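Structure in, sequence out. Go:
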């Protein structure tokens, strides 16, 4: 008899859809998602990114329509990337008041004040060399870059950004930006730090979308080595210490172990960035009819949440919101 009781019937809790939903541990809602947008200069532009079908570079005049669509879907937050026409050595376009991100932010906050604008704070889309900071010879100068990044964050906050998301991976960027925001009267604006950002090959399509490929070398002196796990904790804990309000782990899919580690080691919201290459791989397979896109994508995001992500940044946000709405 006792022997019999040791026989475990796991299938009891899988007998019907109702039973399965009763015991489901992880749920997706549209509130979990942040949608990235690429804003280009010029008029009447809606350029599909060739390596990211369904993702567009939009000009400012296209933004209002986009915001309507997003609000209708229940998406509450967008992440803005700027694609400026003019670039220079020091990324001036990132921090001038009439910069493309600043203009887009103002427009969104005017027409859709309830939409949260997350500003990506980096220089790579604005520098002629495509690196995330100021260069001397072939080196990215950490401390000199911090001043410009802080200036970028303040100008984004002045334009109305609700959250500052520094993605540059310079040392001390959280504290430098926190201090500059506080001094400029923005102590209420949170920092969503790209704390754990690997030097990843999964960013390829993004660099097409944002025109931010480094013109020489790579980002390995500032972004992390994909082989390192403990270093992720070092980066995450430093950013918490410096005052980060949320932490991003990026990429997501191949780094879910890191999402879990960072989640367990900290007590602030964790954001998984489902990056461009992850999107492109699935889109390509879907377009070939090799996978069933909707269940696969929902499974992937469920896995990210199960791994510990509180929020997910993804180019799939609109699709997911639509699927969840129709469920
Ligand atoms: C800017 C930045 C990058 C991404 C987000 N912010 C590119 C990079 O570091 O080269 C990548 C996002 C994606 O691949 O979807 N530094």
């Amino acid at each position: 008899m006792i022997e019999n009781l040791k026989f475990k019937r796991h299938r009891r809790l899988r007998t019907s859809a109702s039973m399965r939903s009763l015991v489901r541990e992880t749920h997706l809602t549209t509130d979990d998602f942040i949608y990235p947008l690429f804003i280009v200069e010029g008029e009447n532009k809606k350029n599909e990114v060739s390596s990211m079908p369904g993702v567009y570079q939009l000009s400012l005049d296209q933004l209002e329509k986009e915001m309507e669509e997003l609000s209708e879907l229940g998406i509450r937050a967008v992440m803005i990337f700027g694609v400026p026409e003019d670039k220079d050595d020091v990324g001036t376009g990132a921090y001038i008041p009439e910069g493309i991100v600043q203009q887009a932010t103002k427009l969104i906050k005017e027409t859709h004040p309830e939409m949260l604008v997350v500003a990506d704070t980096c220089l790579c889309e604005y520098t002629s060399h495509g690196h995330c900071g100021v260069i001397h010879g072939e080196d990215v100068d950490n401390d000199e870059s911090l001043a410009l990044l802080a200036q970028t964050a303040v100008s984004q906050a002045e334009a109305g950004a609700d959250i500052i998301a520094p993605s540059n991976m310079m040392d001390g960027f959280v504290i430098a930006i926190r201090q500059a925001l506080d001094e400029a009267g923005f102590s209420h604006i949170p920092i969503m730090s790209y704390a754990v950002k690997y030097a990843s090959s999964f960013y390829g399509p993004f660099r097409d979308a944002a025109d931010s490929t480094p013109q020489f070398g790579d980002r390995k002196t500032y972004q992390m080595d994909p082989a390192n796990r403990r270093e992720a904790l070092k980066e995450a804990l430093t950013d918490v210490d410096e005052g980060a309000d949320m932490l991003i782990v990026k990429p997501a899919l191949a780094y879910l172990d890191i999402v879990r580690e960072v989640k367990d080691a900290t007590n602030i919201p964790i954001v998984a960035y489902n990056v461009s290459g992850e999107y492109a791989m699935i889109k390509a397979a879907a377009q070939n009819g090799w996978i069933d896109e909707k269940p696969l994508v929902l499974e992937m995001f469920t896995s990210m949440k199960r791994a510990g992500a509180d929020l997910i940044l993804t180019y799939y946000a609109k699709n997911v919101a639509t699927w969840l709405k129709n469920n």
